[in-house]
Structures are given as C-alpha cells and as structure tokens.
Amino acid sequence: MGIRYDWQEAEIRAIYNTALLELIYQAASVHRQYHNPKQIQVCKLISIKTGACPEDCSYCAQSSRYKTEVKPQALLDKETVVNIAQQAKQSGVSRVCMGAAWREVRDNSQFDQVLDMVKEVTALGLEVCCTLGMLTELQAKRLEEAGLYAYNHNLDTSRDYYSTIITTRTYDDRLNTIKNVRQTNVTVCSGGILGLGESVEDRIGMLHTLANLHPHPESVPINILSQVKGTPLESQPDVPIWDVVRMIATARIIMPASDVRLSAGRAKLSHVEQALCFLAGANSIFSSDDGHMLTVTTPCPGYNTDQEMLDLLGLEMRPAFVGQEKLTAL
User: Fold this and answer.
1) What is the reported pTM?
2) Which residues of 309-321 are buried (b: 16+ CB within 10 A; e: fewer)?
3) Is 130 an annotated catalytic residue?
4) Of 38, 142, 272, 288, which sits with the fewest C-beta atoms within 10 Å of its C-beta?
5) Catalytic annotation on 53?
C-alpha cells in the first residue's frame, strides 16, 4: 500500500465502518509494512508554563476562563526542565514534549528561554517536541535552529465542529501554524481529541483534513477527553474503547508512515484495551514520573507501570530518531 494524499471522505468513512476485527487486521497489516511492530516510543510531556491561557478551549483545564484545579505557574527554569528530561531518559523515554499554555509565541525573553531548553534537552540525545500555540514562520525557523525535532499543533476536531469547542482561534489559524512549521525541517505532530461531543462524521472530517496534508503529519496523537471539573465538557460521557480502536486503526491505514500516538486518556484503559490499540497501529505512548500527563487533571501511567505492560506484551521501547530517515525519504 502506497502513501496517498487524495483521500475522499467516503473512503475514510468506509474504512472507519469496517467490521471491527477486520479493521484491526487491515490496520495491523499496514502497520507492519511501515513500522517495527515490536517497538513503542515512550514520551514524556512537561508543562513548562502552566495555566492562565486566554483561550476558551472547552476541554482545557488551563484556560483562564474556567475554575479548575490547575493553578497558574510561571515558566520553569531550564535546569528544572533538563533534570526532568534526564530522569525521563533514564526510564527509557526517547521523546520529550514541552508545552506552554500560550495562545501564540511572542518574540521575547521567554521564547529565548524556551530555545535554550530545546538546545539543552536535544543535547541529551532526545527528540524534542514543543507545543507553544500559534507560530510564525520565523519563529519556526528559530526553533529549528535550536534543534527542535517536532512541533505539536492539534486540529482537535473537524472544521465543522471546531467552533462549538473553540472560538478564540480559527481552524485556519491552526492549519497556518502547521504550514509555517513545514517551511522548516521540523516534523509536524497533529491530531485530535475524542469525546468532545463530536459525531462520527466529525471524526472522519478531521482524519480527512490530516490525511490530505502533504506530507502527512509525522505524528498523529489520538487523545481521549479527560473530563475536567469546571470546564464546559466536564459531564461528557466516556469514549467507548471500540471508538478509540476504530480511530487508531483508520488513522493507521490512511497515514501509514506516521506515528499514531495513544495520548491523553490512556490511564482509563486497561492493559488489554491498550494492547488492542497497539495491534490496531498505535506505536507511541506518554508516560510519567508523577502520575500526570500535563497537569494534575489528566492522569498518566508511570514509567514502571508502563515498563511492566510493555514487558508483558513483548514490546520494547523505541530509541530516539528511529524512522527519521525513512520518513524523510517518502
């Protein structure tokens, strides 16, 4: 199966609605063509600047518009971030993502500090990803010069449903940031969230947008909503595991070379349910040293728990930068 950038929504819908076991089989077959099925990349997410975000994303614990458990914190110092990254590396992590609760990057001393963090953590031999909000082309180039490996900017949902969830930034704003990153050699990480109240058609619409980007995002995170008390989506029902598996399998088939990352919400899944996700094509997880993924409102399994699960399943942690040459050549 080759890589396509001309997917039609009807084709994606047909894949998504395939009988579940057949869908998993097809996705697992594609996965083996492009990836080592024995390897899972373990990632660590660090909140380098927490809370007080001016945006109104309905799911987010860090929005200044909602009263949640998250307390605003200033930008972490470089030494703290490097120490967390070193501990993560010792636990088998090969990718560190640094997130700041900003609407957009500003050309100031704080951005300079982030650039220093990127340089220092990259020097540890880790893939470094940042998620800092909207980004200009010049800012993307400065991150590239600092050694950044990936930039995360999720679409969250479909274009049609997007304005129901967020009003302070448009869908095209998000696509424009991805376009700016593509002017550099920094890889793109972009996916969405399940459980926002979206329909199956919205999920298909989001996948359609991602699968028709040329090239595809090198990373496609599939997040499961963590219902945060105080946010507009605090009462949303849990997402059935079957929906998660369908989403992962469909993403794997239509974006075969991309890493599909089982991201937020994984703490809700049993080892058996996670094994199904891996079989369907997920090949990356986020792990933690403190039981949280980004903030206290999003639980995340710990390093030891994840190591035990991977051992049980006969899986191994993927080293940093594996697959980089393959993706560049496609």
Assistant:
1) 0.91
2) bbeeeebebbebe
3) no
4) 272
5) yes
